[in-house]
Amino acid sequence: YGVAICRCVVRMDHHCPWIANCVGYYNQKPFILFLVYSLIACTYVLVRFGIRLLPIVFPDKFKAPEIDEKWLRLMIGNVGVGLLFELFICCMIRDQFTAVRGSISVIDRKQGNSFKKKSLAAGLISAFGCTPGLSWLVPTTKKKVFIIEKEYAVLRGDN
Questions:
Q1: Do the Cβ atoms of 152 and 48 come closer than 8 Å?
Q2: CB–CB of 106/16 below 8 Å?
Q3: Burial class (CB within 10 angstroms; exposed 0-12, middle 13-18, buried 19+) of 16
């Protein structure tokens, strides 16, 4: 049950303030893609900052322009914050991949429920609702089908 949104969420993982919604069965793919695309964008920005800082770090190899001290402090602070943000995103991606591999949410893990682990590829196919292809790059939600109980029964080994 998603308290923040006052409705039930199938296989609820957590409430995410970034997307202002609960992450669950039907929107896990868009959330994972959001994290991956955020990581790519953050890496791009850090590389661009790094290129701008190269002449300052290695003045003998690159022609160093005149640098304002405030600008330098701002750049170094931005790189530090960017690295922390990237570390946070990596932790979130790892957490989501763990959830996908076990087809189990964070809430279920904290309650002590256990499920059979599957490969990351099989878990992503289950979470993304299709085989690997270009559709994996588009943040669409899964079609709402009512197979959750059957999937849980298979994962628990109730067959």
A1: no
A2: no
A3: middle
- Give the CA distances from residue 89 to residues 14, 33, 37, 84, 115, in Å, rounded to whole numbers and listed in that order: 15, 12, 10, 9, 25
Neighbours of 92 (CB within 10 A): 19
- pTM exceeding the 0.85 threshold for the entire prediction: no
pLDDT tens profile 109-132:
777 776 677 788 888 887 787 777
Distance CA 34, CA 28 (A): 10
Question: How far separated are the first and last CA of the chain, in Å rounded?
Answer: 27
Structure tokens at 41: 């964008």
What is the amino acid identity at position 73?
R
Residue-by-residue DSSP string for 121-148: HHHHHHHHTS-SSGGGGS-PPPP--S-H
Q: How far apart are CA 36 and CA 133, in angstroms?
A: 16
- For residue 134, with 0-12 CB atoms within 10 Å meaning exposed, 13-18 middle and 19 or more buried, which class applies? exposed
Task: Say yes or no to pLDDT of 143 above 70.
Answer: no
Mean local confidence (pLDDT), 20-27: 80
Contact 100/120 with Cβ under 8 angstroms? yes
